[in-house]
Amino acid sequence: MLRIKYEGKIFSNNTIYTISTRNGRVMRFLSKQGKAFIDDLKKECILATANKKGYPLKGKVRVDLVYFHKGQGCDRDNIGKGIYDSMEGIIFEDDRQVVAGETLKIKHTKNMLYITVESIDEKTVESKAKKIIGSSS
Predict the structure, then answer these.
(1) Domain containing residue 82
(2) pLDDT (tens digit, 0 to 9) for every residue of the chain, 137 residues total?
(3) What CATH number corresponds to the domain at position 62?
(4) In whole angstroms, what is the distance from residue 65 CA to residue 15 CA?
(5) What three-state secondary structure class fits 126?
(6) Number of compact structural domains in the chain
């Protein structure tokens, strides 16, 4: 299991990415704040994997986030994408590998993010799914 700690302001997808239309197509762009945030997280990912073998991970991955925030903070469901994007190519090959995880949002006096990442096998994913949906399916 890999653990990463990030101290600083955490940005939601709504701030990291800007949406605009060009030639009738909706396009998503990285904002200046978003680029700085993702670059900072990438540095933490590189430090966390330095001298560790097996990265980027291959196969299915579980990512758990514990997000401490001052004030109102971001919506819990809007912080994952930018964080996953910062891990691509360093922690795992592609964010499509993330098949499980939990995000906790906790009010605090500091803005911090704790991330744990681990490989997960298909059997564990299926077992967890059965617990969630029950035995009816």
Answers:
(1) 2-133
(2) 999 999 988 888 888 888 888 888 888 888 898 899 999 999 999 999 999 999 999 999 999 999 998 877 777 777 888 899 999 999 999 999 999 999 999 999 999 999 999 999 999 989 988 998 986 55
(3) 3.30.1330.70
(4) 18
(5) helix
(6) 1
The answer, as to whether pTM is greater than 0.90, is no
Contact partners, residue 40, CB within 8 Å, separation at least 6 = 6, 8
* Residue found under tokens 């969630």: 132
Token pair of 35, please? 């680029």
Q: Which of 117, 119, 120 is closest to 44 using CA atoms?
A: 117
Residue 31 tokens read as: 């904002």
Q: Which residue type is seen at 42?
A: K
Torsion of CA 122, 123, 128, 129, to 10 degrees: 70
Distances (CA, A) of 32 to 10, 16, 65, 69: 14, 8, 23, 21
